[in-house]
Specification:
single chain; 121 residues; mainly alpha; 5 helices; flat
């Protein structure tokens, strides 16, 4: 069973790690504190859904949406324009998850469609 303190420790460590990594990638005017404030709500919402044992697909879609929202929040907080690769980095999880979901749907297409029958008249 997932203990709530373990979840808090895990997501706090992920929040700190993400803040420091993004601080290294962003312009010097954008500090780790500003980044931490921008991504904090997304981390908390992700932790709550993890605690509630959200299904894997739903959790992945929710994570991609929150990551994109966090990227937009960082762009709003930033005093300077963000580099293009950081904007692309915000769209990357949504693109990957969308691609995987589309591929899974394509693979299961044969299971959903009945085989055509030949009518003899």
């Amino acid at each position: 069973m997932r203990h709530p303190l373990d979840i808090v420790a895990m997501f706090a460590a992920l929040w700190l790690l993400a803040s420091m990594m993004l601080d290294a990638l962003t312009p010097k005017e954008l500090t780790a504190i500003m980044i931490g404030v921008a991504i904090g709500p997304a981390i908390v919402i992700t932790a709550v859904f993890y605690y509630l044992r959200c299904p894997r697909t739903d959790f992945a879609v929710m994570f991609a949406a929150l990551w994109l929202i966090s990227d937009i929040a960082i762009a709003f907080v930033s005093p300077t324009q963000l580099p293009l690769f950081l904007i692309v980095l915000g769209f990357l999880p949504a693109l990957l998850i969308g691609t995987v979901l589309r591929w899974q749907r394509f693979q299961r297409r044969d299971e959903r469609l009945p085989a055509p029958s030949v009518k003899r008249g």
